[in-house]
Specification:
By secondary structure, this protein is α/β, with parallel strands linked by helices. The protein has 8 helices and 13 strands. It has a domain of 179 residues: Glutaconate Coenzyme A-transferase (3-Layer(aba) Sandwich).
Length: 262
C-alpha cells in the first residue's frame, strides 16, 4: 500500500514516447511542475496531453511544448502561451479545443467508468456540428478537423432540449499536484489548486502525484480527502524549494493608499 517513490525521475520512468497524459492545473495554479520537468529530462516525445491549458511560455507544460515533446493537446483554451498558438497555427501541433466544463466532465466520466454523456454545451456550434480545425498545414489550410457528433433531443425538467454526446477521456498516465497526501495516495488540494487536479487524477490509468507534504496513513481526516487513494498509484514528496516554486501568471495589485501628514 505504500505508493511513495524516492524521486520524480523514478515515478515517470515508464512514460514512453506516444503516451497520453492527463495533467492537472489551471493557468499556473496546481501544476505538477516537478513531474513535468522529470518527464522533460527523461526525453519522452510525441506526448498526447489532456489539460485545461498548456502552461505559459517557458513554464509548466510550456516547457515540454518548447522542446517539441507534445504532438497533440486536448484543452479548453490556448491562453497566453504564444508558443502554443504558433505551433498550432503553424501545423506542428494537433489541438482539440473543448468547452471547459465538458473537458472536466469527460475526465471525471473516464475515471467513473462512464463511456459517454449528453450535454447542452456546444449544441449549435462547430463543437457538435464538426469542422473545428484540429491541425493546420504549412500553408494555413486545415488538414484535420473534428467530425460531427451525435445529438439528441431529451426532456430535462419538463423541457425538451437538444444535447450533444461527448465521449469520456481515459489516458495512459496522469500527473497531478496536491498540498498534502499520505502513503496510500489519499490527497488534499489547497484552495484553487483543486481545479483540474482531481478529475485529471481520475482519468489516468496510472496516476502520479507530487505533494508538498507527505504524512502517514490515518493523519488525514477521511472527510477531508479530495481524491481517494484508489485513484493514485505513485506519490512523491516535494522539497521545500520545489514546493515554493509558485509563479504568479498575472500580478495585480492596487495602488498603495496615499498618507497625508497633518
Amino acid at each position: 500500500m505504500d505508493k511513495t517513490y524516492l524521486s520524480a525521475a523514478d515515478a515517470v520512468a515508464d512514460i514512453g514516447n506516444g503516451s497520453s497524459l492527463a495533467v492537472g492545473g489551471f493557468g499556473l495554479v496546481g501544476v505538477p511542475i516537478v513531474l513535468i520537468r522529470a518527464l522533460l529530462a527523461r526525453g519522452s516525445a510525441d506526448l498526447h496531453v489532456v489539460s485545461n491549458n498548456c502552461g505559459v511560455d517557458g513554464w509548466g507544460l510550456g516547457e515540454l511544448l518548447s522542446e517539441g515533446r507534445i504532438s497533440r493537446v486536448t484543452a479548453s483554451y490556448i491562453g497566453e502561451n504564444k508558443d502554443f498558438a504558433r505551433r498550432y497555427l503553424g501545423g506542428e501541433l494537433e489541438v482539440e479545443l473543448t468547452p471547459q466544463g465538458t473537458l472536466a466532465e469527460r475526465m471525471r466520466a473516464g475515471g467513473s467508468g462512464i463511456p459517454a454523456f449528453f450535454t447542452a454545451s456546444g449544441v449549435g456550434t462547430l463543437v457538435a456540428d464538426g469542422g473545428l480545425p484540429w491541425r493546420y498545414g504549412p500553408g494555413g489550410e486545415v488538414t484535420v478537423q473534428s467530425l460531427p457528433k451525435e445529438t439528441r433531443t431529451l426532456a430535462s425538467l419538463g423541457q425538451e432540449r437538444e444535447y450533444v454526446l461527448e465521449e469520456a477521456i481515459v489516458t495512459d498516465f496522469a500527473l497531478i499536484r496536491a498540498a498534502r497526501g499520505d502513503r496510500h495516495g489519499n490527497l488534499v488540494f489547497e484552495k484553487s489548486a483543486r481545479n483540474f487536479n482531481p478529475v485529471a487524477g481520475m482519468a489516468g490509468r496510472i496516476t502520479i502525484a507530487e505533494v508538498d507534504e507527505l504524512v502517514e496513513p490515518g493523519e488525514i481526516d477521511p472527510d477531508s480527502v479530495h481524491l481517494a487513494g484508489i485513484y493514485v498509484d505513485r506519490i512523491i514528496q516535494l522539497s521545500a524549494q520545489d514546493a515554493a516554486d509558485l509563479p504568479v501568471e498575472k500580478v495585480t495589485v492596487r495602488p498603495r493608499p496615499t498618507t497625508h501628514e497633518s
